[in-house]
Write a structure and sequence with these properties.
With about 170 residues, the protein is α+β, with helices and mostly antiparallel strands. It has four helices and eight strands; from the N terminus they run αβββααβαββββ. The N and C termini lie far apart (about 40 Å).
Length: about 170
């Protein structure tokens, strides 16, 4: 919506395509094999390109070595319903977690690579973190939601990850 704001209103498919394009731009092998609306993830550890984090990686990064549901007082670390003025806000204005990561909670939900119970929900994918439209209870390190990979909404974006060579 504005300069410095997180990407939003992006589908899981859009996020995957962005990761592949960024990988190619940087001279790295893409992580995802994409054919129409079918996406396959190559072995994460063997593909050096950019990708969406797994749920476990996302939560590990959010908690930053703690077991707490939040890495600080919510108003100090997150944009949510009470303080976001009805829209996303520029990244980095709220306090980071212990590892220096901003906006892990609030501002926009973030797509992860994982499917959400494929036997029950089929192609549905997971997103984490809470968004600017959520109440306090929506912004927790343990919260997860799901939707079809074509779903877009104005408080859903993504964060990228990359496996480093060993």
């Amino acid at each position: 919506e504005g300069a410095g704001c997180p990407v939003e209103s992006v589908s899981w498919f859009d996020a995957v395509q962005f990761c592949n394009q960024l990988s190619e731009t940087c001279g790295l092998e893409p992580v995802y094999l994409v054919r129409d609306q079918e996406v396959r993830l190559k072995q994460m550890s063997s593909s050096p390109g950019f990708r969406l984090p797994s749920e476990a990686e996302w939560e590990y990064a959010c908690r930053a070595g703690t077991r707490e549901a939040r890495y600080g007082k919510l108003g100090d670390i997150a944009w949510y319903r009470k303080n976001a003025a009805g829209r996303s806000q520029p990244v980095g204005l709220k306090g980071p977690n212990a590892w220096g990561l901003h906006d892990m909670l609030g501002n926009v939900w973030e797509w992860c690579s994982d499917q959400y119970d494929p036997e029950v929900y089929g192609l549905y994918r997971v997103f984490r973190g809470g968004g600017w439209a959520d109440d306090e209870r929506g912004c927790l390190a343990s919260n997860r939601r799901r939707s079809h990979p074509t779903f877009t909404i104005d408080d859903l974006g993504f964060r990228i990850a990359r496996s480093l060579p060993s």
